[in-house]
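Record type: monomer structure entry
Structure origin: computed from sequence
Chain ID: A
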Amino acid sequence: MSVNRKIHTVIKTVFVILALTAGFSAMKPSIAFAVHCCSEGRCGCSRCCGHIGKCSSLCTCTSTNETGKPSNPSTTLGHITKKFSDHRTWLVDVILKDSAPGNPEGLFAAMQLMTNQLTVIGMQQVQAIGMFFDAKHQLETQRIFQVMTAQAHRKYQISEALCLVGTNTRGLAASSRLSDLATATIAKRSVDRLLLNGDLISTDGPLSDKASRLADYILKYCNPKDNGGNLKSLCMKGDSLRDPLDMNRDIDYAGTLASPLTLDIDFSSTDPDNPSKDEEAVFALMSNLIGHEVNQPISEPNLVTDDNTQIYSQGYLALMDSRALAAKKSVAINALASAAGIKAKGPEGVDPYMYAIIEQLGTSLTPAQIEEMLGRNMSYHARMEVLTKIANQDVDSITSLMENPDNVARRDVALLALELIQKSDTRRIFNRTEMTAAMMLETALMREQERLTGIIKPTTGSNRSGAF
């Protein structure tokens, strides 16, 4: 509102007050008097002054102007009514509205301006209150973000112990798959040897099998000091530059299979014609441990007739006995193949981190000795050995328990995952043990079964022993 308009409003208000005062003054009746009756007669009122209408019960004269009608302005009631009407007209039309051209604006306009001003100020106040609310919510939101940031910094601190587990579990699944492949390959090769498969050294029976194994022994595993030193001439027919560490690996279970954490076994390579020393040693050890004496091959004329219309009973009975024996041996073969397959080398990329764990133990081993101990491209067995045993022997593994409680809980979960992996491996071992025990029981009962069969059904005198 401008200054001139404010001054105009004040002057207008003063005029209203003066006008109200003048109006109340003008409402006084112009003719409103009464005269007592004359003294003659107590209540006769025979003589009274003018403008007397009648006498009252108290013998007083009452003016007709006092009891006039509102429509007659000459009476007191009419005069008052007219003055009030004039005042109302003046107050509404002049003071409040004052819509005549050239006159100042009335109070209605001033009040409208005041209303607009109050509305604008009220909206400005509401806007200010809204800004306060916005600022309050903004500060509260910032505080929440700051609290969450502080919690994140507290809960998600870097943990070397947790990173150790997470880093070194890489490639564990790939190592497990390579281990399964090696187990299946070793077991199949050994079973094929028992079955005199045409692709192996035992295709012609015991003679070819032992002749090939003897040549392999002379070339790679012969130790001149064995047999009381009487193997010098035999060993000289082999490789004179053979590695002394390879001597007797075809019979040394501890040195060939049990002690090493990683064996150079990889049947996923693209060069199967050049097997590694470890692969050859494992196959030689398997031949000496299980199925040293392979069966004689059953010639085809002893199985079927020349026209292929009849099967000879002696031939097929000998064949079934041979296959039953090979099946029982395959259970033991699977256990031995699993022990070798779990140590087959794994994928590349994780070895340096595993080697660092050994170095942190404070041992005096050189990097070359650590690599020799764990092997290159560490096997599934070597990785689990480090993760579940060697890594927990480090002092830092114990002191890390004083870290952030959240990191300790995360590490517990990681170790629980490794524990579940170990339990799964243990379950597979139990399954193999159970199957081996079952085959041992079956083998132990074979003689009793043959005795009972002889009692129930006497033999016909057929001889199934020997070659056909």
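Annotation 1: Residues 26-55, 461-468 have pLDDT under 50 and may be disordered.
Annotation 2: The first helix runs from residue 3 to 26.
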